# Entry
Amino acid sequence: DSDHVLLTDRGRTATLFKVSDQKPLGCWSVKHGQMITCPVVCNFETHEYIAVHDDKVLRIWGDEDVNLDKVFKATLSADVYRIHSLPHGEPLVLFKGGGVRTLDVLLEAPQQEIENFISDEVIKWSEAFLEGQEPILIFATEKDGDYFIYIQKFKLNILHKYKLEQQESSNPLSFTAYIKNQIITLLCLYSDDSIYKVLIPLQQHSEEEEQILSKSLLLKLSVSGSVLKGTSFAVLDKDHVAVLGSLTAFGEESKECLTIWNTKFQTLQTSKELPLGTSGQLWCYGEKFFFTHGKVLTVIIYKCETSSLAAAVGKLKDSQTSDVSFLNWNTLSEEELVVSLQSQQSVTPKSESKMTLRSRRSSVAKVPPDTLTVGQLLLDIKDSASAVVEEGLKQLLSKAQMPDVQATIGCVIPALINRCKTDPMFYPQNFLVQLIQKRELSYSLCPDLMAVALEKKDMHLLQLCLQRFPDIPEEITYACLKLFLSISDDYLERTDVNLDSIICYIDIESNNKGVKNEIVENGFNTELEEDSCDTTFTKETLLKNDGEFCPVGPQKAALLNAVLHSAYSETFLLPHLKDLPAQQAVLFLRYLHYLYVKCSEKINTTLPGVLSPTINQIMDWMCLLLDAHFTVMVMLPEAKGLLSSLHKFVRAQVRFYSELNKIEGSLQELQRLKLQKDSQAYSIEVLELI
# Structure
């Protein structure tokens, strides 16, 4: 769906990712020696996953399954080419011989005979659609340089075969298709750097056994002497296609790029270089691109609006005369990118002025403040004075009902961050803070923001990001924790940090020491537990380790609370925590111990304040920290007193709750008796607890 991706590796594994969190939710692999031979899909009807390994072995499992060797298995009678999953319908299984079955029919008799329509042909591509309520399957095959198109209609059980018109000295490399008004539009990317269009009507009455499909040139992938050697492509709308491939100019080394082309005006809208390389595959779903870049799955948001000649020519002019295109891909982050193809239905004086602004940057400053566009602001951010940029940013924040606000912010923040990287004197901290406070942002929308804040040691911004971003990678969370622990309390006193999470339980005026509340602790008594450890400590050590006083200043405590509030996966955080210096690990554990004691003083084990850490968060982080540094903690002399104090406190808690458990039955009985008896206005009752 729009937030989940199932990625199949060439080999043994399939991984389910949550896009907004940038985290894997599950990973499954087949045994050594086995190989997944077609992409894993999700059955929308049952919410189960379907895979085929070694061509014939079908596996079906759910989210809760871990070992694929123990899930449902069926061995089929023929080799599977691909499984296509459709919303509101059974998955379709396409066999290498051209036979097709729905999954439910196939599972009734897995060893049923599958017909072979294309014994000498090899399937190169396939896709499935729903036209009304009817599933339709289309696939392309190749034999001796000839290409054939098959269309399978399931309701009528009809298979149409067509032959693709031959192209001299070039072959199709990739296909894509869509259905509209009972017509299949098939697009073919050829090796002569062109995209051709083929129209196939679904209503066929001809009795011809094999019709020839003629094609028309849709787009030539060349501009200004550069040629794109495409590997895969996707249709964005009726006027735009995205092509992944290598852009080659005469005398220059080829560069792998993601490009967007306007098919209506035959222009290259924009391109983005991908220096780490890709697998050559491009997917498009829900206004997002998906492709592998290096060793990561990259997700790029795009937005297409109605194309116009003014916009197309303006963008082309920019790409020839300036290193900044109107879409400004040079300043956007790799993880999330907004492509805003501007809409102008006709060339009006307004659109002419916009084209002038894009080509003559000196005129940008003369635009009236109320007409500043996002494109002009991006040009300002690149190299204008800080005062000009700040004025533009103020206008942006003042537009409360701005359309596509997330897309606009997705353009502006990466541009600001790139300016911060290239210009050390430029850092619009107030704007960034206001933006995070006013908008529902995420780490994935501005992935380099926290890296710049870490470099600038901007504690306030980091605190806000940790509290508000739901998808911060564990590596960044660890970097924030390490920075907070390493900076002195004296330095932090001079910084702007929100103290709302600690102000109710740490006395800021008492030299950074905790307020001792006169509340009976839940079963903990220092005197009763004093003899529970053979090790002898000085009075100073005991005061330092017993959790009575806060071991850090209020600013550092508030920052550490923000770290505790941040979401994480134990699997990915633990390796980073092992790199935390021993002294910082001890200090952090001491603070967690302090919080644990404070929580235990309260009847409801809840700390007061806004965004204060919960008892579960505190306990989880304590366990995680001890797992990461257990050996170091045991061997470190200054940690022995802390571990002993923790041990005593936890044991006291266990004893207390054990005693409560003993009288739980009696307390329940008292409650039952109270409900049964209708007491008068005044009565005295003596109940014996046995």
